[in-house]
Write a structure and sequence with these properties.
The structure holds two protein chains of two kinds.
Chain A lengths: L1 H5 L6 H8 L9 H14 L4 H13 L6 H12 L6 H7 L16 H16 L3 H8 L5 H6 L7 H16 E5 H8 L3 H10 L3 E2 L5 E3 L12 E2 L5 H14 L1
Antiparallel strand pairs in A: 1-3, 2-3
Chain B lengths: L1 H40 L6 H19 L2 H15 L3 H19 L8 H4 L7 H18 L4 H20 L10 H22 L7 H8 L7 H15 L1 H9 L4 H12 L2 H20 L3 H6 L16 H17 L3 H22 L5 H21 L6 H10 L1 H9 L4 H12 L14 H8 L17 H15 L3 H8 L4 E3 H8 L3 H14 L1 E4 L12 E4 L3 E6 L2 E6 L1 E2 L4 H20 L7 H10 L1 H10 L6 H11 L1
Antiparallel strand pairs in B: 1-5, 2-3, 4-5
Subunit structure (chain B): Component of the eukaryotic translation initiation factor 3 (eIF-3) complex.
Protein name (chain B): Eukaryotic translation initiation factor 3 subunit L
InterPro entries (chain B): eIF3l
């Protein structure tokens, strides 16, 4: 999982060269990385390290600053919770000095706290609250101008919930699940089906198949003694005999 | 290794004193005459330019005259050692002499400027660069650098790196590894110090504002990265490390790394630059990139690069901090434990080292980091370190481990104590008077931003991120302590105990599950520090079946083996020692060997049977001493 995180299979060679080489500091490459971000938005792919490379260039070259790109990167990073991508991205955002002029008003200062709030809800597994806020009137701007452009955004957030549910539940009520993924009726059934989960006989509960995280077993960890620990003693015995 | 080195210079420091007295009379005798002649020969016809020159010259002479003779002797001697590439002598001068005379004469003032001592060293430009390196480092560590010091130390660093990188082929200079590390370390420290100082707009004088407006590349992030990357590329250090890992022969490696990389000076500078990059990226808040530049470096105690203790400790400190910011607490703990054990082991050798304080300070901060990680991801790793950490930060640790609201201030306190001194990459708009005046105007943050503008200080920015993570997990310890009491429990009942809403509580359980999983480099198998896979970090496991929580706990069986092994070995040692002791009324022959051989008698017997435990240490020690 982490290996996929550091170099996703979908990453093109050109981007790999940029991410891993010294050329990542060259401001004239920012366009290539930004295009790659737009490709990620359209295709549903995700490449955290490449996006961090954009933010790095912005950090060093204040004149490259493009708030729309930053907002898209931050939104995109939400779906990788509980991995720290959102924090890693925001770590690179330095305060902009006053007087740095843009042609249009800068949307980032007002949206950053909003996205941070959304991230916080996801990281704290407050999925129903996330959907409520995400769908609220105040966030119309975020939805209409940004998330609508991101292919599969809502599904990627549902994946966050799915990961959490899979790890913690063997069985979850349909009703509860519905609030986590913000789906109802036939859509919810289709979603459950897609996860290859099953609805139990009563029809009100969803069975989560066993996976490494929802299998619990009381174990007693026994000490295991490795040969190197005993070399001294064995060699002593050998010398004595 | 460390022990040997230490003994060497401790012994030579005394001899040094005598040597210098001899050198001194010779050197000063010569020089004094030259200077005197120069003054006499000055032509009588004086225009204004020469007048100034003469005045300057006289001022320099006056300054020169004030330098104590031992210091002059020291500088001459130091220069000679550098000319001859005599590493042992350079080391003595660098580690012992410089500090000694600093304490004696320059504890509160600058060393003489390079221009003043230049005649002592025949105006050797390379030595003067090295001298300035020391001069400015002393200013930074003991005094308050002013803006000229900051600009000039940057220029001097540039000259040094320019000489190393852009001479005709690799330079012949050789310097002790410790000094090479200090050069890189200090370069980054001065960069960090400059960035911090630069970000405080309000305390600048008009002169400083003027200079800063035209500072250009001085201490810019790009210049610093440029130096580090140039050293890395010139030395081919990454290729060197990879070739070593592949077990290539010395000839093959020499082929790969080329004329620069074959020289110890470049190889070490290359390696230290990798560590320098790690540090710079951490300071700038880029924790992923920091670990990525370390891709090829293997963290272990065996590498020859661990010889410079300060570098070794710094590496682990910054790596562990990255892991914390990546929410990889088990990896952080493992990294910290390794280095803290190392510091404990080397303590006996390093008590007199001038770096000892610095290493200890870093060590203390790492105990604080350990306490934080341990609270966030409790594990049974290394009780010894855990006990020390709890002893030092008992108050905070108790609060952090308990969770809840009280934990947050404790985390904040330890984070601020233990974190690196973060910097911002960009200067305030010194070159933009309008913007600057907005910053300078008292207490009026720009009215454009609707939300109270986030604080400019990068440390608090990162602290806020960390605390957000911490508060997200603040309920986990409470939940855990409840769950420990049951094997199964209804969700509504648990919610009742906690006085919480059932749905909230179930979501909190998912947080707890999440907190008990982490990405980690299992078994060091990864291809780099960023690799890893998800592991379970908690002994308490649970699962929710609709509304029923089932809980299990993994326990660790009693451990006997370690105890038995340790005591078997100890008994054997005791037995061997007893057998070696002379009998109370020994026969005459035995007594003679015993008396004449002393320690080596013990080593001789054990050396004959090398695999014997415990005794082996004595044996090797004996051989080396002989």
């Amino acid at each position: 999982m982490a290996y996929e995180w550091t170099s996703p299979v979908t990453r093109p060679e050109q981007i790999e060269a940029l991410v891993s080489g010294v050329d990542r500091y060259n401001p004239s490459n920012v366009g290539i990385l930004e295009d790659y971000l737009y490709h990620q938005l359209r295709s549903g792919e995700y490449d955290c390290l490449a996006n961090l490379a954009i933010l790095k260039l912005y950090q060093f070259n204040a004149d490259l600053y493009n708030p729309d790109i930053i907002i898209n990167i931050l939104i995109k990073s939400l779906a990788s919770s509980p991995l720290p991508d959102f924090n890693l991205c925001t770590s690179l955002l330095e305060d902009r000095p006053p007087g740095a002029s843009l042609d249009e008003p800068d949307p980032l200062p007002s949206l950053l706290p909003v996205i941070r709030g959304l991230h916080n809800l996801l990281y704290r597994c407050r999925f129903p609250a996330f959907w409520a806020i995400y769908r609220s009137e105040q966030l119309a701007n975020l939805r209409d101008n940004y998330t609508v452009e991101i292919s599969g955004f809502e599904d990627s957030i549902r994946e966050v919930a799915v990961r959490a549910v899979k790890a913690a539940f063997t069985k979850i009520s349909r009703e509860r699940l519905a609030t986590y993924v913000d789906l109802q009726g036939a859509e919810l059934d289709a979603f459950i089906d897609k996860q290859r989960w099953t609805i139990d006989a009563s029809g009100s509960n969803v069975e989560i198949p066993p996976n490494p995280d929802n299998q619990i077993e009381a174990t007693v960890v026994q000490e295991s003694i490795k040969l190197p620990q005993l070399t001294k003693i064995i060699s002593l015995a050998a010398v004595k005999s | 290794m460390a022990q040997q080195r230490m003994a060497l210079w401790a012994a030579e420091a005394d001899i040094e004193e005598d040597l210098q007295d001899v050198d001194l009379s010779l050197a000063i005798g010569n020089y004094g005459q030259n200077a005197y002649d120069d003054a006499l020969i000055q032509p009588p016809q004086i225009d204004e330019a020469t007048l100034i020159a003469v005045q300057q010259h006289m001022a320099q002479q006056a300054a020169f005259a004030q330098i104590p003779d031992v210091v002059k002797g020291f500088i001459v001697h130091f220069h000679q050692a550098v000319l001859e590439n005599n590493l042992a002598e350079i080391t003595v001068a660098y580690e012992s002499g410089w500090n000694k005379y600093t304490e004696k004469f320059y504890a509160k003032t600058e060393w003489p400027e390079a221009e003043i001592i230049a005649p002592l060293v025949n105006d050797d430009p390379i030595f003067l660069i090295l001298y300035r390196e020391l001069y400015y480092r002393h200013v930074y560590s003991r005094l308050q650098p002013d803006i000229d010091d900051r600009f000039h130390s940057y220029e001097n660093s540039c000259e040094l790196f320019n000489y190393l990188l852009n001479s005709d082929g690799p330079v012949q200079l050789e310097l002790p590894e410790q000094w090479l590390w200090d050069i890189i370390d200090e370069f980054i420290y001065q960069y960090q110090s400059f960035c911090t100082w630069r970000s405080k707009v309000k305390s600048k004088t008009d002169d400083e504002l003027g200079l800063l407006a035209e500072a250009g590349p001085v201490w810019s992030s790009y210049s610093v990265l440029n130096v580090l990357y140039s050293l890395i590329q010139k030395s081919k250090i990454n290729e060197y490390i990879v070739a070593q890992q592949q077990g290539k022969s010395a000839e093959e490696i020499a082929e790969i790394v080329g004329e620069y990389g074959s020289r110890p000076l470049y190889r070490m500078l290359g390696y230290f630059s990798v560590i320098g990059l790690l540090r710079v990226h951490v300071l700038l808040g880029d924790f992923t990139l920091a670990l990525k530049v370390m891709e090829n470096v293997e963290l272990n105690q065996k590498s020859p690069f661990t010889r410079v203790t300060a570098c070794h400790v710094a590496t682990y400190y910054y790596v562990s901090f990255c892991y914390i910011m990546l929410r990889r607490y088990p990896d952080a703990v493992r990294t910290i434990v390794t280095i803290l054990n190392f510091i404990m082991r080397m303590r006996q050798y390093h008590t007199r080292s001038y770096q000892y304080d610095q290493i200890n300070k870093t060590g203390d901060r790492m105990y604080a980091l350990f306490a934080m990680c341990h609270a966030l991801s409790p594990s049974r790793l290394d009780d010894n370190i855990a006990n020390i950490a709890k002893e030092r930060f008992g108050d905070q640790y108790a609060k952090m481990a308990r969770g809840g609201d009280e934990a947050i201030p404790a985390f904040e306190e330890l984070f601020l104590y233990a974190c690196p001194k973060f910097i911002t990459a960009n200067a305030p708009p010194y070159d933009n008077p309008a913007a600057l005046s907005v910053l300078l105007s008292p207490g009026s943050p720009s009215p454009v931003t609707p939300a109270p503008s986030a604080t400019q200080d990068p440390t608090h920015r990162l602290l806020a991120l960390f605390l957000a993570d911490v508060s997200a997990n603040a309920q986990v310890p409470t939940l855990r302590s409840f769950l420990k009491l049951y094997t199964s429990l209804g969700a509504s009942k648990l919610a009742n105990f906690l006085d919480a809403d059932e749905e909230e509580m179930v979501q909190e359980m998912m947080v707890m599950k999440q907190a008990s999983r982490s990405v980690s480099r299992v078994g060091d198998s990864g291809r780099g520090l960023l690799d890893g896979q998800t592991i379970s970090t908690s002994d308490l496991n649970f699962v929710i079946d609709e509304n029923m929580v089932h809980i299990t706990e993994s326990t660790v069986g009693r451990r006997y083996a370690g105890w038995f092994i340790k005591n078997t070995e100890r008994t054997q040692r005791l037995f061997d020692d007893l057998r070696k002791m002379p009998l109370p009324v020994p026969p005459a022959v035995d007594a003679a060997t015993g008396a004449s051989n002393g320690v080596s008698q013990a080593s001789a017997t054990t050396a004959a049977k090398p695999p014997r435990s415990g005794g082996a240490k004595v044996a090797w020690g004996g051989v080396k001493a002989a």
